[in-house]
Amino acid sequence: MEIDAYLRRQIEQKMLYLALTVACSVLLGFIFKLFGRFGVDGFQAIVFNYFTCFCCGWIHLGHFPVQTENFASPWMPYALVLGLIFVSGFNLAALTVKHFGVTIGQIMQKMSILMTVPFAIMAYGESSGWSKILGFFFALASIVLVNWPSRQKSPANSDHPQKSAAPKNLIWIPIATWVLAGLLEVLLVRVQNERLTDMSDPTFIITIFGTAGSIGLVIALLGWASGRLKFSWKNVAAGIILGIPNYGSMVFMLFALNSGLEGSFVFPVANVGIIVATTIGAVTLFREKLTKLNWLGIVLAVAAIALIAF
């Protein structure tokens, strides 16, 4: 009986980490949604967000995260590359939304599981029963259907830019967005499975945020110097507000991976959970309308989570 109670507590803790990952990520989505309303520059807010994440990690860790011995750690090259991916991925995602619309932007980022799940299964022999495979395809379908736009949306409310179709020579932008989103998750799966670091130690993710913030700050300084960007304290405030749940979303995801959950389970369930929770929240808080295809996507998403989990 004591063993059963212990196992139950372990499972509950794993699911709690995953639920907190989804909750923090959904909060991020709602904060981003308000940026336009308050005239916040997304790029500058993201830069200050990274430094906020770094400070959150500093407080969490209890001492300054950058230590000389860390530079010789086996995870350091991964942290530096992931920091670059964070900044590059954000800018490419923003360009995808600008030229192709929010729908394509959301789909290309969440379709990262097309890379992550096969990689985790083939490279590290993670479980691949029929229910997980079926759930994987349900997850892909749900991501597309939940983001499928309504033809009845007015131009003012449409999530597509009101312009002619994007030039064919820009098709590389959403493709690169998908590649970077997938590469980010693949590298996290590799760090987890190779046990390059203890995922419960926030030093790894703090270093990623510090790297991303440093690269972003250089770009921002060049923008301010050239006049292309205009500094505003509201961008700083927005970055601080954004940074707290952003740190939580990444730390809880690492905790979920460290708890023994497979990457081929964590990333599909988290991505689908974020999409569903964000959509339901948008309907409740922002009075957005869902089509029958959107609701079908939510049903498939719930089915996907059930199949992948059990």
Describe the structure.
With 310 residues, the chain is mainly α. Helix content is 75%, strand content 0%. It has eleven helices and no strands. The protein has helices at 2-35, 42-61, 76-100, 102-110, 113-124, 130-146, 172-193, 203-226, 233-258, 263-286, 292-309. α1 (2-35) crosses α10 (263-286), α2 packs across α9 (233-258) and α6 packs antiparallel against α11. Mean pLDDT is 86; it is low at 153-163.
What number is the mean pLDDT? 86
Report the portion of residues in β strands.
Answer: under 5%
Largest sheet: none
- Report the helical percentage: over 70%
Rounded Rg: 20 Å
Structural class: mainly alpha
Order of helices and strands: HHHHHHHHHHH
How many helical stretches? 11
What quaternary form is this?
single chain
Shape: globular
* Number of β-strand runs: 0
User: Which spans have pLDDT < 50 for at least 5 consecutive residues?
Assistant: 153-163
Distance between the termini: 23 Å
In short:
This protein is an all-alpha fold. It has helices at residues 2-35, 42-61, 76-100, 102-110, 113-124, 130-146, 172-193, 203-226, 233-258, 263-286, 292-309.
From the structure above, extract its key features:
11 helices; mainly alpha; 310 residues
Please specify the SSE layout and strand pairing.
Layout: H1 2-35, H2 42-61, H3 76-100, H4 102-110, H5 113-124, H6 130-146, H7 172-193, H8 203-226, H9 233-258, H10 263-286, H11 292-309
Helix pairs in contact: 1-9, 1-10, 2-8, 2-9, 3-4, 3-7, 3-8, 4-7, 5-7, 5-10, 6-10, 6-11, 10-11
